[in-house]
Structures are given as C-alpha cells and as structure tokens.
Specification:
There is one protein chain. It is built from 32 helices and 27 strands. It is α/β, with parallel strands linked by helices. It has seven domains: 157 residues, 3-Layer(aba) Sandwich (MutS, DNA mismatch repair protein, domain I), CATH 3.40.1170; 140 residues, 2-Layer Sandwich (Nucleotidyltransferase, domain 5), CATH 3.30.420; 137 residues, MutS, DNA mismatch repair protein, Chain A, domain 3; 101 residues, Orthogonal Bundle (MutS, DNA mismatch repair protein, Chain A, domain 3); 206 residues, P-loop containing nucleotide triphosphate hydrolases (Rossmann fold), CATH 3.40.50; 40 residues, no CATH class; 34 residues, no CATH class. A seven-stranded mixed β-sheet has the order 13-23-24-25-21-26-27, sandwiched between helices. It is elongated. It binds adenosine-5'-triphosphate (ATP). The site of adenosine-5'-triphosphate (ATP) has 15 residues, from helix 23 and helix 24.
C-alpha cells in the first residue's frame, strides 16, 4: 500500500515514546558502535555523503546519526511516521513497494524520501529484515516543547534506540511462534573453537566446542537467523553460513576478546566468578561474551533475560550432518516445505513453546540413555492416562507464550497484553499443576509439575490489575482494572466524569450555603469558580461560610468565589488525563518489576510447560498411530519388528488407497551389521532405509516409534546418502555430490553410527559405479564396523555376503502378474534377481516402442552376460543399431481412426438413417 509521504501530523511532533536510551550505557555503546559499524559498512553500505553548510538542522541531525549506522536503514522518527532519506529511502521504497518522494535539497539535489506510519512499522520491519536489511530505529528522545526551551529553531533530540537484525527479533509479529530464532556466533581462538547461540525471545543461551569441520552440520541443526563472526573470518565461513540460510555479520576482533569477555559474562549474569556458571574454554568465553556484547549494542544496553549458558558437549547428541538432515526431511522437505516433513507428522503439541522444544528434540536427538529414558517414561505415563492427557492438553491449549512475553518484559519492549498473557499463563499453569498434583508421576513430569506452582500472589496481582482486553501499548492507557489503584480510579473518574464531579460539588455547596441558585462555572481567565448573586454574596463573605468560600471577583451582576477544594479539584481535573496515563505507566512498570522478580521461576515454568506439552503430544501421537516405546541399551543392535515410515504411512493413509506394509530390520553386532538390500525399482527400498533411520532418531528424541517392537543400541551418528541433486552453485555434479557425501560417511562413521546408503555409484558408468559400491561396502564392514543398510541395483554385490561375515542380503518382494509387476513392499532375507526396471518404466508411461526395444536389448545383454564377455559383445553387435529408428512408426490405433471419422461428422446435418449407418461403420472399425 503506498504511504502518504507528508502527513500533517508530522508538523507537530508528539512526546517521546517509551524505550529511551539507557543513559548509563551511552559512552560504552557509542564507543563500540563506531567500531563495529565501520565493519558493518563493508556489508552493504547505505552511507550518504557528509553534510554541507546549507543543510537544515534536522537534516544535519539525520546525517550525523546515519553516519553511525551506514549498513542499516535508518528509521528516523518524525511524529507519527518513520521516515527514510537518501539511499535508504530508495532501497526501502523498492523493497516495500511504497511511494518514493522527495523532501528538500542536499548539495543542490533533491533528497529522496519515503515513510512508514509508526503504528504499522512492525510489518514493514519484518519485510525488510526478511529481505536481508538491518534497521536502526531512531526515536525522538524529548518532546517538542522541551526542544523549544533551547531556542525556537532547536531540533528535537533523537537517538537510535534499537538496531533490528534477523537474530535479534522479539516481537510476536516478527517471529514464527513454533520456531526458535537463533543468533549464533562462531569463534576460533588459537586451536580452540566454539559455536554459541542464543534465542533472545526466550533467553535460551548455549555453547558447544565446535571444530571448523563441524560448523556446517551444527548450523544445519540450529538453522540460526544470523551468525556473527570476527573480522577476517568471513572468508572461510561465509559460504557455510549462507548455506544454512543465515545472515552473516562481521564484527571487530575486540568484540570477541576472551580476556575482557570474562567480565562481560560475569556482569551479564550477575556473578563474581565465571566458574559459578560452568566450565569455559577461551573460545567459549569469546563466543558467549561476543553474543552478549552484540545484544547489548543492538538493544542499546538493555540485555534480554538470559538463561545460564548451557554447554552442549558434542557426544551428548546424535551427530547428523547437513546432507543427512536434508535427505531425511526432518523439519522440511527437499522442496523446502514444512508439510510432509517428519516434524509436521509428529508434532501434536498444543503450545508454541512445546512445538519449539519438540523441534529441538527432533533436530538434536540425545545419546544419553538416562535422559532418553526419562523422556520416554513421561510419554508412557500419558499413554496410560488418556483422560488425564486430554484434560492436560485442553488446559495447555489456553496457555499463551509465557517464554516470549517474559522476554519482552525484560527488554522493556512489552505491552499490557504481555502482562495479561503472563497472568493467564500462570493461572493456566496452576490448573495443569492441579491436574497432575495427585498423580504418581515419573521424575521428569514430577519436576516439571513442581515448577508450575507458587505464583498465586503474582497471578492475583496481575488478575486484579489488568482489564480483560488491554491495548497493545502501555502508552495507550486504559488497561488497569477499576479498583486496583484508588488514585488512578480517582483520576480516571475525574477525567471521564469531570462534569458530574463538579455537579456533585455544586449541590454540596448549595446545601452548605443554603443558596440554591449557587453555580460552579468555568472560564478561561479564572478557570473553575463558584458564582452567586450580589444578594447572596454577603452571607458567603461572613462567618462561618467565609472560612470555606474565598472571594475572587465581583462583577456587575455576580460575585465569584473559589474554595481550596475547588482549586484542588481544578488542578486535578486539569492534570487528570496526564496523571491517569502517568499512573497507568507507573502501575505497568510496577507490574513488570514484579514479574521480573519472578523471572527465573517463570522461565522454569515456561520450560516445564513445554516439557509437559511435548510428553503429552508424543503420547497422543503414539496412541493414535499405534507406536511403541523403544527399548534402548548400550548394545550395538538395531532390532525393529514391524517398522513403518511415519511420513509415507501418513501419506498412504490420507489417500486411503492401500495400507503401509510394516517391515522388520535386524542388525546385530554378533550377526549381521549390514543389510544389503536389492529389489525392483519402486519396491520400497528407500522407504525402508529412511524409516529405520527415522525410528532410531525418534527413539533417541525420547519419542515412541512406529513399530511393533524396537530394541536399539544407542546410535552416535546417523548418516544418510539417499538420492542427490546437482549442486551447480558449488560447481558439483550429481556424481560429485554423491561422492563427497559418501566420503564424509566413510571418514567419520564410528562403530555406533547408523548409516543408510541408497544406490551408491549409480551416477557413473556401470563398472565404475559397481566398483565404488563394492569398495564402500567393504570399508563399512571392515573399517567403520557400523550398522548399515545398503540399497543397490548392482546385483553382483549380493555375492559379497560369502566374503563379508557381517553382511546379509535382504530384498523387497514383488510379484509378476501377466508381464506386469505388483509391488508387495515386503522386506525379506535373500537377494533379488532382477530390477524390473522395464516394467516400472511401463507404469510410468514410456512409449510402447521404447519399451519393446528396451526388452530386446535387456534380453541380449542378459544372455551375453550368461555366456561370457566376448559373447555379450557379439550379441550387442547383432542388435541392429538403428532398429528403434528403423522400426515402423506405430500403426495408428483403432481408437484414432474412430476419432478421425468422428471428427469429420457434422451431427446437425445427419439424418436418422445416416446416424444409424455411422454407428455401424464405427462398430466395424472398432472390430478391425
Ligand atoms: N512398506 C510400504 N508399504 C506401502 N507402500 C510402500 C512401502 N514402501 C514404499 N511404498 C510405496 O512405494 C513407493 C516407492 O518406494 P521407494 O521410493 O522406497 O522405492 P525404491 O525401491 O527405493 O525405488 P527406486 O529403486 O526406484 O528408487 C513409495 O512412494 C510408497 O508410496
């Protein structure tokens, strides 16, 4: 929608908004900002030239502020609008599709300008952030009256109150409710390196030692919105960061100084000694403190409510590389859609925080047996209690996003609705607690339930204080409930009912003075006054009434008085509106302070809500879909009975055409560690491979699994090489991508890994491909010694089971019926003899002539193979080279002849006899 570029309201600049700069931090911020903005400038500079002498004071102010934020679009507050000038205006007008206009001149040229209304700014902000811009929000820091005191031409003080970047969003409108929004940083200090990340909307802060080779997989796991790196490090990281879909931000080295970092972290967490927070290497300190510094700068000194940093040790979680994540379609499909991903099928959570936690569990399955068992026990508890589960889920459904509302309160970016959300959240949480309190709970649920209580006082306070439907912004007023503050009630009453208050007072005075004609009136000179006729005035000027009534003016017809009470009332009325707003803001600040007094406990409550939601949701899923609790242990076995692929099964169910055929899989360290899977195309090999990888992943995410029974020795890594596409952007062909991914598996898989490999070597010539597949299988067996499922169309490989003791053959069965192939989708021990490729091609609709020709060639090749290499060559030579071309064109079918005849018919001109003849003619053609 085009924006009116010159609204009249801009002429009268209103008072400043909330969220003014924290004056204590200004020197540090300004110092730091200059440094890193110089670097930001290299990353898409939107700078403008220096001011000249002819610029207006306002434009001079704009240019001075803009100079400090060269890489960000400057949203310059003017009244009810944020205005953008120069290149910022050109870029924003194009990105937002709003009108570009001009305002004044600079160095003789028009100044391009565009603007967005303040009340709709969030939407525009989101749009710009999504398009890769950063936005510096510059507010008025005083009201125009204050500015005028310094001189008629003074410009209202302005300053940037926030630098909005993709990783530092907090508003609900700018965030996806069911997804975390991470800001990450990767830091290398000598031979150490660390990846740290934070979701400022929830305060979740984590770090993990991360060698450079792990950066890609880790970013693929976290999918951060923005990654910070030190000056000079972008060369080696930019490609990886871009691949993860994140924005890269380069900052000065000093931001990541590990010596100064210790103090920064201690200060942010209010501890005297870093050891109180855990173990940190120098790289860890550099990374965590770098994040803190960046947050402090972008939020103008106002730190979010950070949780204690948690160290994620690498072997706490199943390692899954980026290609595997993509192939297994964990959170999105290969086409980039959420629908059709594993997460979309398993997510039955009813709260946003629950959805975020479940996403984390799926993307980061655990390797810790105890943690997994704890989570699975929580799921199992709810499986046995369907009534309770339903009640808990119903109560949870009403819960607002406590975590994010709390985050906004801490950043002083909240509104009355956030407080209401917190109040409702606490009250709902108490209900969930009440439901669970009487139960014999497993430890995880017991601890979670305990976190939900103890907020009665805060809940009462918020309940008493807030109206049912408060406005979004505190400055709009009208959100404090009647009865909460006597003074506020009085102010609002005065403001809203000034007339009736005056009328009541007039009646009181008339009674007191026994002058029924006494009136309270108002004029601009005297303000409020009491008026009576000259006849009655004498009484009011003598005792005892002259104690109360004070003479102010005598006119020809009347005498005017005031009282102390009326004077006070007048002041009150005059100030009532302003005072009411002020009092509401005080109440708001007081409530925020009370909420923040409970910050740690409220964060624990939010985390526990998510835990309970995930357990109940996974249990709901398990009961609805017939999933079972897996048995996890320290063995290296992988035994699945009647396993199913959750996503394919759901898709088949939705079509209601067939049923999913469940299959067993048995990999054991003592017997077969590797299954070599052969079978026709379209039989279900890929599905089988993926379903087993997903079952392992779900089990270690703490979920039940789609199987009749599952016994899984903890898996340390999951690797999948399934299908591939070109990666032309990185100059890699399909085959190259396949080989790079295979190399990663062979180089990294340990003996606890679960590897699925689908048709290795198919991207090259038959013999090259076969040799690579052969050697890969041997390497997995002899060197990696991991559990693996290996699907192939190279039937020659099935012979390897004789040589490799821990490899067995399995096949997906089909039945041939009248030359066609019927897929049974059953996996059985044994080897397939052929691939039925030609039959599948027929199903796909290849022309009959091509199919016939393919059959002839296949037969010749197979005969040749049976009879030896030289014979095969002779047979191929025998095949007429151009036979396909030479073959006569397919005879036109009876159908097309019929069509021809019918096309020539003019139905309206046919007599009944001709029509009957036509039918006979058509019938006879059909026969021939
Ligand atoms: N167990 C099953 N039960 C029912 N249908 C299945 C099963 N497995 C696979 N299918 C169906 O068969 C289709 C093909 O499966 P899949 O892609 O796994 O075959 P494939 O053997 O890997 O084929 P290709 O060798 O051609 O890649 C799936 O899209 C699914 O609809």
């Amino acid at each position: 929608m085009p924006i009116d570029p010159a609204p009249p309201s801009r002429q009268n600049e209103p008072p400043p908004t909330r969220g003014q700069t924290n004056s204590k931090s200004i020197p540090m911020i300004a110092f730091f900002r200059r440094k890193f903005c110089l670097i930001l400038a290299t990353n898409g500079d939107q700078s403008v030239s220096k001011p000249d002498q002819s610029v207006t004071p306002m434009m001079a102010q704009f240019l001075a502020i803009k100079e400090e934020y060269p890489s960000a679009l400057l949203f310059y507050r003017m009244g009810d609008f944020y205005e953008l000038f120069f290149d910022d205006a050109v870029a924003a007008a194009q990105a937002l599709d709003i009108t570009l206009t001009k305002r004044g001149k600079h160095q003789g040229a028009d100044i391009p300008m565009c603007g967005v209304p303040v009340h709709a700014a969030e939407g525009y902000l989101l749009n710009l952030i999504r398009k890769g811009f950063r936005v510096a929000v510059c507010e008025q820091l005083e009201n125009p009256k204050e500015a005028k005191k310094r001189g008629a031409k003074s410009v209202v003080k302005r300053g940037v109150v926030r630098l909005v970047t993709p990783g530092t969003l907090t508003e609900d409108t700018l965030l996806q409710p069911r997804q975390s929004n991470f800001l990450a940083t990767f830091v290398q200090v000598r031979n150490q390196s660390c990846l740290a990340w934070v979701d400022i909307s929830t305060g979740d802060m984590r770090y993990s030692p991360c060698p450079p080779v792990r950066l890609g997989p880790e970013l693929a796991r976290l999918a951060p919105a923005e990654v910070l790196v030190a000056e000079g490090a972008l060369d080696e990281t930019l490609e990886i960061i871009n691949e993860a879909g994140a924005a890269a931000t380069e900052l000065p080295q000093e931001v990541f100084d590990s010596t100064a970092g210790v103090e920064k972290i201690c200060k942010a967490y209010g501890v005297g000694d870093l050891s109180g927070l855990g173990e940190f290497s120098r790289a860890d300190v550099a990374a965590v403190s770098g994040l803190i510094e960046y947050l402090s700068t972008t939020q103008k000194g106002q730190l979010p409510l950070l949780r204690r940093p948690v160290c994620e040790a690498r072997d706490d979680f199943v390692a899954i590389d980026a290609a595997t994540r993509k192939n297994l379609e964990l959170t999105q499909t290969l086409a980039g859609e959420r629908s059709g991903s594993l997460l979309s099928v398993v997510d039955r959570s009813v709260t946003a925080a629950g959805a975020r936690l479940l996403s984390r569990r799926i993307t980061t399955p655990s390797q810790r047996l105890a943690a997994i068992e704890e989570r699975a026990s929580a799921v199992e508890f709810f499986c046995g209690q369907s009534g309770l589960r339903g009640a808990v889920r119903t109560a949870l459904k009403q819960l607002p996003d406590v975590e994010r509302a709390l985050g906004r309160v801490a950043l002083e970016r909240s509104g009355p609705r956030d407080l209401l959300a917190l109040g409702n959240g606490i009250a709902q949480a108490a209900q969930v607690h009440a439901l669970l309190a009487e139960q014999e709970l497993p430890p995880l649920l017991k601890n979670a339930a305990d976190d939900l209580k103890g907020f009665e006082a805060l809940s009462d306070e918020l309940d008493r204080a807030l109206v049912a439907e408060p406005p979004l912004l505190a400055r709009d007023g009208g959100f404090v409930a009647t009865g909460y503050s006597a003074e506020l009630d009085e102010m609002t009453a005065l403001r809203d009912e000034a007339r009736s208050v005056i009328a009541r007072m007039q009646a009181d005075y008339a009674g007191q003075s026994e002058i029924s004609s006494l009136k309270i009136k108002h004029n601009n000179v005297l303000g409020y006054f009491i008026e009576t006729t000259a006849t009655h005035s004498q009484r009011m000027m003598t005792a005892p009434l002259n104690d109360v009534f004070i003479h102010r003016q005598t006119t020809a017809n009347a005498v005017r008085f005031t009282t102390v009470e009326l004077g006070e009332l007048e002041t009150k009325i005059l100030n009532a509106a302003g005072r009411a707003t002020g009092l509401e803001l005080e109440v708001f600040a007081g409530l925020c302070a009370q909420v923040l007094d409970h910050a740690a406990a409220l964060q624990a409550l939010a985390v526990s809500i998510a835990e309970i939601d995930v357990a109940a949701a996974l249990s709901e899923l398990a009961m609805a879909e017939g999933w079972v609790r897996p048995v996890l242990n320290d063995s290296r076995d992988f035994i699945i009975e009647q396993g199913r692929h959750p996503v394919v099964e759901a898709a088949i169910k939705a079509q209601a055409e067939t049923v999913f055929v469940a299959n067993d899989c048995q990999l054991t360290s003592t017997n077969d560690m590797i299954w070599l899977l052969t079978g026709p195309n379209m039989a279900g090999k890929s599905t089988f491979l993926r379903q087993n990888a997903l079952i392992a992943l779900l089990a270690q995410a703490g979920s039940f699994v789609p199987a009749a029974r599952a016994e899984i020795g903890i898996v340390s890594q999951i690797f999948s090489r399934v299908g591939a596409a070109d990666d032309l952007a990185r100059g890699r062909s399909t085959f190259m991508v396949e080989m790079v991914e295979t190399a990663a598996i062979l180089n990294q898989a340990d003996d606890r890994a679960l590897v699925i490999l689908d048709e290795i070597g198919r991207g090259t010539s038959t013999y090259d491909g076969l040799s690579i597949a052969w050697a890969t299988l041997e390497h997995l067996h002899d060197v990696n010694r991991c559990r693996a499922l290996f699907a192939t169309h190279y039937h020659e490989l099935t012979q390897l089971t004789a040589k490799l003791t821990h490899v067995d053959n399995a096949t997906v069965t089909v039945r041939e019926y009248q030359g066609d192939v019927v897929f049974l989708h059953e996996v059985k021990k044994g080897a397939a003899d052929r691939s039925y490729g030609v039959q599948v091609a027929k199903l796909a609709g290849l022309p009959q002539s091509v199919l016939e020709r393919a059959k002839v060639v296949l037969e010749a090749l197979e005969r040749g193979e049976r009879e030896g290499h030289s014979k095969q060559k002779a047979l191929i030579d025998d095949l007429p080279l151009f036979s396909a071309v030479a073959m006569s064109a397919p005879a036109p079918s009876a159908q097309s002849e019929l069509e021809e005849v019918l096309n020539g018919v003019q139905p309206d001109s046919l007599s009944p006899k001709e029509a009957l003849d036509l039918i006979y003619q058509l019938k006879s053609k059909l026969k021939t």
